[in-house]
Amino acid sequence: MAWLGWSLGLLALLGGVAAFLYWQLIIAEGAYLGRRVVTWLYDASAHAYDNIKAFQPTYEEMLLARPLRQKLALSGFTDPLVLDVATGTARLPYGLFRYTQYPGRVIGLDLSRKMLVEALPKCQPWADRLTFIWQDASELPFPDDIFDAVACLEALEFMPDPDRVLRELARVLRPGGILLTTNRIGKTARWMPGRTHSAQALEEKLQALEMEMIRIRPWQVDYEMVWAIKPGVRRAVGLRALDEVLRCPRCHAPVSRDGDRYGCEQGHAFAVSAEGILEMASVRQEA
Ligand SMILES: C[S@@+](CC[C@H](N)C(=O)[O-])C[C@H]1O[C@@H](n2cnc3c(N)ncnc32)[C@H](O)[C@@H]1O
Question: Which of 132, 210, 211, 242 has the fewest CB atoms nearer than 10 Å to its CB?
């Protein structure tokens, strides 16, 4: 009967390993295993992402793109500059341009290069006003107080340090600017301790960042939608050239373009890929 005991033990062990992997890779999407694993998982699933999510155009228009467009218009931002952090396959930029006659410019930033490659063809009609940057969200390559709106949807919980990313989102938002993010809820949220919050805890974090008019609303099964405003006087400054808003991801100095590369005066350089993606995640020191 010893073999029965061994077999049951082995089965229990395999079941435990399978449950652990399911938790780490499927529910938490690699969040506790580091940004390389998260990125690897998104790279691997990038091609299937839109099909898996099955976004409904009506909901994307009514619940996401139009509310942001209306808030930008009400705030007097006529040619807005919007940053979408962890843009993925460009859900938000696509929605803004496709459904709202959005007149401004959008920068979409993500650490999965393959997600950005998937985003490119569907956003081709608006390529002159949409830029994709391959870069980590915890080091946003922009000066303070620059964007009229900053979004980060369904992504904070996958970051190694979500609080740091929240601080970065608030930093680059201009006074009077609009923050739009999400709060993971539902059954799976409790399996991500340290990465998810109660609505009240998130509100307190945003208050600590001096954000105002914080509104946390039901949105999807797994996410609440979070709106807030950075206090200060609204000042619409219109469209800005990309070079004006970019900073070196290493040293934060201004950068300038020279052909298919950008560089700063400290000698840090990064390429613009053939598809047009700014590859800041692979910045290098030039001689
Ligand atoms: C669930 S997807 C959300 C994508 C998009 N915002 C949406 O709503 O469809 C999460 C995204 O976060 C990105 N991401 C995860 N960690 C990141 C990091 N440290 N920096 C930038 N992007 C990151 C992933 O590559 C992925 O595209």
Answer: 210
Residues in the chain: 287
The percent of residues in the chain predicted with pLDDT above 90, rounded, is 85
What lies within 8 Å, CB to CB, of 96 at 6+ separation is 65, 68, 69, 82, 102, 106
List residues near ligand 1 (CB under 6 A).
35, 38-39, 42, 86-88, 91, 110-112, 115, 136-138, 153-155, 158-159
Average pLDDT score over the chain: 94
Q: Whose CA is closest to 82, among 209, 174, 214?
A: 174
**Model pLDDT for residues 146-194, shown as the tens digit of each residue:** 999 999 999 999 999 999 999 999 999 999 999 999 999 998 999 999 9
What are the phi and psi torsion angles at 57 (to 5°)? Answer: -50, -40
